[in-house]
């Protein structure tokens, strides 16, 4: 049975060039980059080149990038780091109801530690109101954390507009760009962000590596304690092979930044055209216009998400019900609840399709046709 992978928002396969690069580094550059001898200097050179290349991809300086174990650690480091460093100024933080759990659970932890959180609502397109954010700002607000693009429905928040709003306010601005990075152009100065989180495994890089952009001069308490790696901001010996692989994935993603979105939009059109031709009843969760190019979340009335996922998997099609970090949970998606309410049927019948490396138009069409057959069987057509 041919298998079709349409769950790239959960994780993506490593690009062959990334694998080759990592194998080379693992074989030849095994030194500790903190060591002063030749082996250490060689590893340090790999690390420095990767840092410069990755910094350039977002318009940052090389000293503004610290490597982490992934998006979760980057989010935790940004939010807890700012909270601990700025709590003498204020203890109010603003975020949204649809953030990734790496942000939401971190904020909930800080609430238990005495911080006050404001969770901004979203409309049915999954978008916050900048007016709501402006109204929520206070003199003691120290941080605003708003994700760039949502991992479940793809909604793209007005990041540049938020950055402009915060220019006149002392609060720092963090964005989780894990899903947006690599499929959209990002310039931290144009956006006005102070901190930005990224993970490698979403862009065909290795798991277990990510980065946090920290604007130069920003005061941030370290999240880990130990050695003096990463300019004393992230202790622990750097994973040089993973960082080299990450850098290779970034170079590939930047090279394909114009081609990919157009291809993914075509995939969306093909998928929806098959549904239309088959007269399948469906509703799109979120906005097609203001959405990540590779993510499409669709509600199929009369179906059940668990049955859909099982049947699709048995038919060789891998998709998701939303965030991979809540896979297996019987709880409805917190994103869809925020968008439509906890009693909405959409929280029980929505599927996320997400595109990436190796996908073809023929595969997408085939997956759509399989989906139609399953829907018709489940609704008794």
Automatic annotation (TrEMBL):
Signal peptide: none
Reactions catalysed according to its record: (sulfur carrier)-H + L-cysteine = (sulfur carrier)-SH + L-alanine
SUPFAM superfamilies in the record: PLP-dependent transferases
Keywords tagged on the record: Iron, Iron-sulfur, Metal-binding, Pyridoxal phosphate, Transferase
Cofactor annotation: pyridoxal 5'-phosphate
Domain of life: Bacteria
Gene Ontology molecular function, alphabetical: cysteine desulfurase activity; iron-sulfur cluster binding; metal ion binding
Domain Aminotransferase class V: 4-365
Documented EC number(s): 2.8.1.7
Pfam family, one: Aminotran_5
Family affiliation: Belongs to the class-V pyridoxal-phosphate-dependent aminotransferase family. NifS/IscS subfamily.
Protein name: cysteine desulfurase
Species, as recorded: Peribacillus muralis
């Amino acid at each position: 049975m041919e298998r079709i992978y349409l769950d790239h928002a959960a994780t993506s396969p490593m690009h062959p060039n990334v694998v080759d690069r990592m194998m080379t580094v693992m074989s030849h550059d095994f030194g500790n980059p903190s060591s002063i001898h030749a082996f250490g200097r060689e590893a340090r050179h790999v690390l420095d080149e990767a840092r410069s290349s990755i910094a350039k991809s977002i318009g940052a300086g090389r000293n503004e990038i610290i490597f982490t174990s992934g998006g979760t650690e980057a989010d935790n480091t940004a939010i807890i780091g700012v909270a601990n460093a700025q709590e003498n100024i204020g203890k109010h933080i603003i975020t949204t109801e649809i953030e990734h759990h790496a942000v939401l659970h971190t904020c909930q932890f800080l609430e238990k530690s005495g911080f006050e959180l404001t969770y901004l609502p979203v409309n049915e397109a999954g978008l916050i109101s900048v007016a709501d954010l402006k109204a929520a700002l206070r003199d003691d607000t120290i941080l605003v954390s708003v994700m760039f693009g949502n991992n479940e429905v793809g909604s793209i928040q007005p990041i540049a507009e938020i950055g402009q709003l915060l220019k006149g306010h002392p609060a720092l601005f963090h964005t989780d760009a894990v899903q947006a990075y690599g499929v959209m152009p990002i310039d931290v100065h144009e956006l006005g962000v102070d901190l930005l989180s990224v993970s490698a495994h979403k862009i065909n890089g290795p798991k277990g590596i990510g980065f946090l952009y920290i604007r130069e001069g920003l005061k941030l308490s370290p999240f880990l304690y130990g050695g003096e790696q990463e300019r004393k901001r992230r202790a622990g010996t750097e994973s040089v092979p993973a960082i080299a692989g990450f850098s290779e994935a970034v170079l590939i993603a930047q090279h394909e930044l114009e081609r990919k979105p157009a291809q993914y939009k075509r995939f969306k059109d093909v998928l929806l055209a098959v549904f239309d031709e088959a007269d399948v009843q469906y509703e799109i969760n979120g906005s097609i216009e203001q959405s990540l190019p590779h993510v499409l979340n669709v509600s199929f009335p009369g179906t059940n998400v668990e049955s859909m996922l099982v049947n699709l998997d048995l038919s060789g099609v891998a998709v998701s019900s939303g965030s991979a970090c809540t896979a297996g949970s019987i709880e409805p998606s917190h994103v869809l609840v925020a968008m439509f309410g906890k009693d909405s049927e959409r929280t029980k019948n929505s599927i996320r399709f997400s595109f990436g490396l190796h996908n073809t138009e023929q595969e997408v069409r085939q997956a759509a046709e399989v989906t139609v057959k399953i829907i018709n069987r489940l609704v008794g057509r």
